[in-house]
Amino acid sequence: MYTIKHAAQRVGITTATLRAWERRYGVITPHRSESGYRLYGDHDVAVLLSMKHLVDQGWSVGLAAAEAVRIDREHPAPDTTPRSPDSGRPAQPLPALAERLTAAASALDTTDLAAALDQVFALGSFETVMTDHVFPALGMLGDAWADGRVSVAGEHLSSNAVMRRLAVAYEAAATHGHGPRITLGLAPHTRHEIGLFAFAVAARRRGMDTDYLGADLPLDDWLGVVDDPDLAAVVLAIPTTADIPCADEVITALCDRRPDLVVAVGGAQQAHAPEPAFRLGHDIAAGAGILAAAISR
Known about the structure:
The protein is of the alpha/beta class. It is built from twelve helices and seven strands. Residues 1-71 form the HTH merR-type domain. Keywords: DNA-binding, Repressor, Transcription, Transcription regulation.
């Protein structure tokens, strides 16, 4: 199941647009957790993607909604959302994790925060846990901070706890990384690095030789990095709209400096990256595969 933020990212629209399409046109009916969170399945995402494709082709929103519903009625998209074995209802791990992280962050409870992360990281592979559980839960935590339910201190406490887990996973994956050399970092003034660091772990687990440079890297340093002829690729992220201009400047400069270099980008605002940057999507395992394929061309 996806939170509203995660579903909107997968479709490529804003959460406000998703809510509007849902309420005004009735294209989908999301599930609700016991706490009232909207939860979207793969079927919902498929219908929304169909509608967005039509809107992008110039259809009016109303006609696109009606056509997407008609297409789904005649050729229904499969719903591969995980379901509880005994109830037949969609499993709902995300709100429970998000609520626990939010409560721990609000109370500055490091013990429960650590216990919640221990529990979620035991659910599956690193890539699955991050994409399907941790990222959406952090999105909900961010909403709680924006609403004033969690302090800046609580949000930082949670983010740093996740970063420590990523650091451990990154070091544990070191024996995997003997393939093509890639460098990962953020543009100047860009500081939200959890997503990029998680991708660095996934890339290393995929066999790439990774150098993670972290947040807020000056343009001159980026240019110095890509002068290394052994470097196969660089990866940046554009987490917020405020990060778009600096990322655009860095990506353009890198492509001009090394036209042969693979430049890839992830993050919520990756659609705004200039060409010829590769978009890695929002699933870190799939993104690592996209990067590997781009390097091997």
